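Protein in question passed on here:
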Amino acid sequence: MTKEDLRIVYMGTPDFAVESLRRLVEGGYNVVGVITMPDKPMGRHQDQLSQSAVKKYAVEHGLRLLQPVKLKDPNFIEELRSLKADLQIVVAFRMLPEIVWAMPRLGTFNLHASLLPQYRGAAPINWAVINGDTETGITTFFLQQEIDTGNIIQQVKVPILDTDNVEDVHDKLMVLGGNLVLETVDNIIADNVRPIPQEQFASERPLRPAPKIFKETCKIDWTCGVKRSYDLIRGLSPYPAAWTTLVANGKEQILKIFKTEKEFCSPTDPIGTVVLDGKKSMKVALEDGYLNLLEIQLAGKKRMHAEDFLRGFHAEEVCVK
């Protein structure tokens, strides 16, 4: 079988999923259908519809598109079956019911943004950075009943630099993910795939989950030290962004923090104190040093460099909590 003969159905939603779909289409693979999320209402009156990044790409390139509300809907199942896919590929989509993932004769494989079995869950890139990991990667694996537990096909490792934020790592993995999806498809076509159970990838390191990120996940705990605060901030930058409560002259406001620098020392200020150096810099005291705030955003304002923020900021006593 050639790549032109292999009938592929592709499933995905965000920008991360577009790269792999683009590589398949431009590489001449036979994508017979694309499945993505229904359009989402948006705007003040919820009267506008937002299309997923995958839908926009599929429409621009004339691909057959399905947007089921429920993946067990009989009409969707019938339409999916009519595509007669040999293989399904899932990148950043939803949990599939067995009737869907078991449909193609060659199975369904998923591209996951971690080195499984580490970071099973919805936000693997965020949590790898938040936890201060120096390495992550991407994995292709065949779907089975339990989420992110299927047999591994291939993996690629990627270093995480100390200056990387989640957007940097996301973009690295997105490009490498496109490569790995094509390699995996080619190996399946060549019958050169020998999936390995995830249990064989176990190490002495405890398994870390990657649950969905909520607002409270993003709140900075200034008592946890310089390194952990620094990693939390870059692991949530630029979205959804770490936040804290800025208290200036007794007034409290939500402050998002996007970029910082570490300064390890024995601070002379109480934890949470914001030290201002005229109109040039602002830094937060922690138990083992300071975090210099470089890029921030006050509620209702635009994101800006700290020195720009300080030009219009006047306060005698400032802290965060």
Summary: The chain has a mean pLDDT of 95. The first strand starts at residue 7 and ends at 12.
